């Protein structure tokens, strides 16, 4: 396999670690609410052990290895052994940073960017450290586990550099021989039964069953401290219907498979469990935004016919996260994310995670003038609530999917509804059984985030394409120039002419997202694909990317608290940890029992038959 530059795949030693501070929010909860939060947090974290099994074939094995290394003896004793086998102090710090970053991401691929990261220390000496560890004597299988994942820890090549279908990347959502064509076949099959297109397809249940069996009793325990019947009744897809009716609770919770961005097919979801307490002051701002939403939505570029028949006023809450069990922590979320039918017809909730938004280290800003850097430092934190609010409520919460119902009727007027791009009648729609994710696949995330970026924060693919859209508009609105710094190294200068945002930038973005909404509403995959391909990466982009990567700053990650019940069983204590790699590692060691890790290891070994080439 072709070798690549490994430097972007090494965790920087100066990566900022921020506390996900929930002290004030937790203290404001009643004793019953704290118990409710505690047991749901335990369920969320136990369920999050599914995630390493969803990231890469080696992630769960690495999780087992790291947990047992750090749980079997004090960190200082392990450090002494590391130095004794010839690792340097810098090597030791690199190992701690790798382990902390791995635990935060629940795997060896970064949750932001899906890029693999590796351990950059002498491999032979780390092998000696594993062999000399106390864990190696306590767990007879530890060395064989290490041998199984050693390559995944230390090496990266062109295929393994990023997540993707297994012929071009790495994924465990599909076994090693599954291609995009196979996934497209299955997506078509989901509307049929039995034999399909000459292929006999069987459905096998039970993935992650043993891990989830440890989650269910904790959810049952949570119900004992629920404050209303809705909280007790929440279960499976029906949970989404009930959950959106539980308005303004003091403790907000959600648990399930609901983040489909990492599946290369764009349909299968990653586990996520979240527990958070309401931040009442910031929530007041979002309540005002919801109150004004019906006035704002008609101003979006696609018009009323492409909006939901009735605006279902959501519960929009600012939350301080107490526990989040998944790969990485987001800034905001709309739930139910996976069920467009519920979101369109019954309603949704918007969540802004205040303590993840506010925990922003002040770092130098590359590629902009000193004047613009000053503006960014002054207003980024202040504007972020607005960005997240617009992104979730007016972005993800807007737009309608045109559908043919099971009885043959349509959810739009075929005679009066006009195609906003051609002026003719609507000639395509979603058939029964088709979903936005199943039809658009990997494009779904990029298209959706582009729509939302037009009114707020979004993800990298969307940012790149919208950058190209504004560049294409010309007239000096956005300029990017290649320069050099004081040492002669390649640099970039990015300038946005504030005077041309309204006259040039906004019209270009409006027209672009209007097209995206039209294609999304009418299930027009072909046109959407062509539009995105138009804004592909060219030689100039690749040259600029190399400059950006050479100056890339480490992305912060979080250390989370744990909760524990007091000896009398009537109270809950919040346990916090320092903003260090050791703090992250200790939080994980104290979060999981050895029995839970045994179950993870068993599930990982059962899955290995699907990835024989790893």
Automatic annotation (TrEMBL):
GO terms for cellular component: cytoplasm. InterPro entries: Peptidase_M49. One of its GO terms (molecular function) is dipeptidyl-peptidase activity. Signal peptide: none annotated. Transmembrane segments: none annotated. PANTHER family: DIPEPTIDYL PEPTIDASE 3, DIPEPTIDYL PEPTIDASE III-RELATED. This is Peptidase. It comes from Pristionchus pacificus (Parasitic nematode worm).
């Amino acid at each position: 396999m072709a070798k690549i530059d490994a430097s972007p795949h090494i965790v920087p030693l100066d990566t900022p670690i921020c506390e996900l501070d929930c002290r004030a929010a937790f203290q404001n909860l009643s004793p019953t609410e704290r118990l409710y939060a505690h047991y749901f947090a335990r369920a969320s974290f136990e369920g999050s052990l599914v995630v390493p099994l969803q990231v890469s074939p080696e992630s769960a094995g690495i999780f087992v290895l790291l947990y047992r290394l750090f749980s079997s003896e004090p960190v200082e004793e392990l450090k002494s052994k590391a130095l004794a086998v010839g690792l340097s102090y810098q090597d030791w710090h690199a190992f701690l940073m790798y382990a902390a970053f791995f635990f935060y991401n629940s795997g060896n691929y970064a949750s932001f960017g899906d890029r693999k990261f590796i351990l950059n220390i002498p491999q032979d000496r780390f092998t000696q450290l594993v062999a000399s560890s106390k864990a190696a004597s306590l767990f007879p299988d530890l060395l064989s586990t290490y041998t199984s994942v050693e390559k995944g820890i230390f090496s990266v090549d062109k295929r393994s550099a990023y997540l993707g279908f297994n012929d071009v990347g790495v994924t465990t959502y599909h076994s090693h021989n599954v291609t995009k064509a196979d996934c497209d076949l299955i997506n078509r099959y989901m509307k049929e039964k039995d034999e399909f297109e000459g292929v006999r397809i069987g459905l096998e249940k039970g993935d992650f069953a043993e891990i989830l069996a440890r989650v269910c009793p904790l959810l049952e325990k949570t119900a004992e401290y629920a404050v209303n019947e809705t909280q007790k009744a929440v279960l499976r897809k029906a949970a989404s219907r009930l959950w959106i009716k539980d308005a303004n609770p003091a403790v907000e919770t959600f648990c399930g498979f609901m983040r489909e961005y990492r599946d290369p097919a764009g349909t299968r979801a990653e586990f996520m469990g979240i527990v958070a307490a309401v931040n009442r002051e910031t929530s007041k701002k979002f309540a005002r935004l919801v109150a004004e939403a019906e006035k704002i939505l008609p101003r979006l570029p696609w018009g009323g016919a492409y909006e939901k028949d009735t605006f279902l006023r959501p519960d929009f809450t600012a939350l301080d996260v107490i526990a989040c069990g998944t790969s990485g922590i987001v800034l905001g979320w709309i739930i139910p994310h996976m069920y467009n039918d519920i979101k369109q017809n019954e309603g949704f909730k918007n969540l802004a995670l205040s303590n993840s938004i506010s925990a922003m280290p002040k770092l130098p800003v590359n590629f902009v003038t000193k004047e613009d850097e000053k503006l960014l430092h002054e207003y980024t934190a202040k504007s972020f609530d607005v960005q997240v609010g617009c992104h979730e409520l007016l972005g993800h919460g807007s737009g309608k999917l045109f559908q043919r119902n099971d009885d043959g009727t349509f959810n739009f007027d075929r005679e009066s509804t006009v195609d906003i791009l051609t002026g003719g009648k609507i000639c395509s729609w979603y058939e029964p059984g088709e979903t936005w994710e199943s039809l658009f696949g990997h494009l779904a995330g990029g298209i959706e985030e582009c729509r939302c970026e037009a009114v707020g924060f979004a993800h990298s693919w969307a940012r790149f394409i919208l950058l190209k859209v504004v560049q294409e508009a010309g007239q000096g609105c956005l300029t990017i120039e290649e320069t050099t710094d004081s040492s002669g190294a390649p640099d970039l200068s990015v300038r946005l002419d504030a005077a041309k945002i309204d006259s040039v930038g906004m019209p270009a973005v409006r027209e672009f997202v209007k097209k995206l909404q039209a294609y999304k509403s009418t299930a027009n995959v072909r046109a959407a694909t062509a539009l995105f391909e138009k804004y592909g990466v060219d030689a100039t982009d690749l040259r600029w990317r190399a400059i950006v990567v050479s100056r890339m700053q480490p992305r912060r990650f979080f250390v989370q608290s744990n909760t524990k019940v007091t000896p009398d069983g009537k109270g809950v204590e919040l346990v916090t940890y320092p903003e260090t790699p050791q703090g992250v590692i200790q939080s994980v060691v104290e979060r999981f029992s050895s029995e839970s890790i045994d179950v993870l290891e068993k599930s990982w070994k059962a899955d290995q038959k699907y990835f024989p080439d790893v």
